Amino acid sequence: MGVHGVKAVFFDLDNTLIDTAAAGRRAIEESKHHYGEAEARAICDKVQAKLLKECHDPARMCITDLRISHWEEAIQETIGGAANRNLAAECYFLWKTTRLQNLTLAEDTRGMLTELRKGVRLLLLTNGDRQTQREKIEACACQPYFDAIVVGGEQKEEKPAPSIFHYCCDLLGVQPAECVMVGDSLDTDIQGGLNAGLKATVWLNKAMTAPGDASPVPHYIISSVLDLPAVLQKMEHKMNAKLGTDHTASSNE
Q1: Rounded distance, CA 181 to CA 165, Å?
Q2: 243 pLDDT tier (thresholds 50, 70, 90)
Q3: Which UniProt key words apply to this protein (predicted)?
Q4: How far is the C-alpha of 125 from the C-alpha of 187, rounded, in Å?
């Protein structure tokens, strides 16, 4: 399917194309087997909180060492005693392995991407540490569905900086005004698409919650990534209607 004026669609990865949050929850459940239920739950809750507040500088520490430290701190904060780096590493690698095993690109999503790619170019644009994101991409085997893959941790700036979006445009040989950004984050995906002057931004809002007053305003909102083709069709109809109006106006002059 082709869309007038749209030559490329950029997709976010985590919690847009793959359910990273659900995979992480399953990995946390698996990690609880090391302790009694109450202690395990407390440790895992602490790790989850540390992951959410994580600020990683790859120049200072590799992501593996940082995340082992999360587990080490959480264990010590919960059960006390001396720090146990080996145990923390065991917990971390169990969590990581289980999470990767649960990252899948759903069959219906694969089908949608395959159909979309017949008419527009597709690019995967994900923020995050290079090693972590490349492992996720490998685990869900999404490479064949995209013309290009860009990882924020490999660039000078990440979403929402305009530079990374313009880099993506250059990769595909398209203009920002010919591109659509699809993602679940208002702060990075939607704000970034707006900052870069893309044709449209599409916010994936699974819970269909109302955005905050200060939040960026997306052009379109969908509850499932599978709703995207309908949005692109709507854009095409709008474009056709505008072209028809313009043609009528010029004919009447």
Answers
A1: 9
A2: low
A3: Hydrolase, Magnesium
A4: 14
